[in-house]
């Protein structure tokens, strides 16, 4: 029996389901995979109509520059990324527009000063690491202890709820707005597709949370779970999960990939919290989309593609 793959997309509205699936297929496999892949398309839970076919997804990093960036890792990073100050300002501006309420001083919410400081610190750290000419291999899982907000759990949850309400509305809807069950139901339906060979599940951004919790709700044999640009290692996300962190029963292997500059994946190591740890592999990759979070850039990276292609072999004919 040939393998199959289920995709779970991330935040925001998306193009129509068949086009989105084909885009993911092309980035991961280099071709459309037909019936061997299916998209858990939860966007209609939140949006009445898909994005137009040719409109770039603003949450996916936008279109790539037409010209080739300079050679060398440091030069590539400098060409693709705005300065940290510009990135922070742009992120806060987007949060204000999403909130639709700039307030008397142009702020989306009263915690914006703290958010700006936090974003700036994280961006400077990521920018410094990204400009290293040869990125080191990930070491032991506890070597990158990036935590979001150093507060007791009730305070963290309250602040996290306020931040995502303004800046990441789909995350807020999932955890606090009652949309979570409907989103997970879409993933469960995709997981319950035709029986066959090994199953691979690939999630991006918020999609990694939905896929993870769907697999925790109902045991399903999964040969490989792939999460890219995932916030599942962040304490504030773990505080909001329905169950304590653990590798879902039935998942044989879990590959988690992130770019050090991806501000959605602020903590890059899942292994310390998600046992059994020997099933989890954390890898650092280069995502040169404008926000370092784009799905196409993630799926085209060798450490993401290799374990999937190994399961599929030559793929369907």
Automatic annotation (TrEMBL):
Region (Disordered): 50-84
InterPro entries registered for this protein in UniProt: AB_hydrolase_fold
Biased composition (Low complexity): 63-80
Domain of life assignment: Bacteria
Protein name: Thioesterase domain-containing protein
Organism (species): Streptomyces bugieae
